[in-house]
Amino acid sequence: MAKRGEKTVWVRCSGTPKERVATMLLGDNDGNKYPPFHRIDPILLLWDDFSGHWTQNVLDYAASINVVLEKAPPRATSVSQPADAAWSFPLKASLRNLWHTEMQTQITRPRATGTKFKRKAPDRIKICGWISMTWDSLMAQLEKLSLLEGPPVDESSDFDSSEAIVEEATV
């Protein structure tokens, strides 16, 4: 694991057949996307009131990595969830497709008679390339699906979640 401020972040391998990778990807509601990055400045993280988020272990760890946790106002979390649904699904589907293509390529590759097939996991460079390529193509896919316009707004509601979030964050 990398220490704060390092330019290269290595993955800790557990020795299990399933490995996971996590990266921070950022895009805004205007359709701008930003390259993956590593920050050391304080970060504000808005969470809903789910009790599992607010355990003492979570609070202590967040403080240790310079993350300030704030509760989002009630009824405001649905405002931020469309981005998760609009981005996460196509991102994961594209990565899964690249993984399946990689496996199909390995399976169909010619090998000597009597040689058993042995699956080879993609290396970090290939996985990072997949993530970068998928992230680069994500906004074009979302524009094509008209998902960058945002969720429908209920004009009859008198609750303005964006004002509530700003008020809560500035108090």
UniProtKB/TrEMBL annotation:
Highest taxon above the source species: Eukaryota
Region (Disordered): 152-171
GO molecular function: nucleic acid binding
Organism, as annotated: Phytophthora aleatoria
Ranges where the DDE-1 domain occurs: 43-138
Protein name in UniProt: DDE-1 domain-containing protein
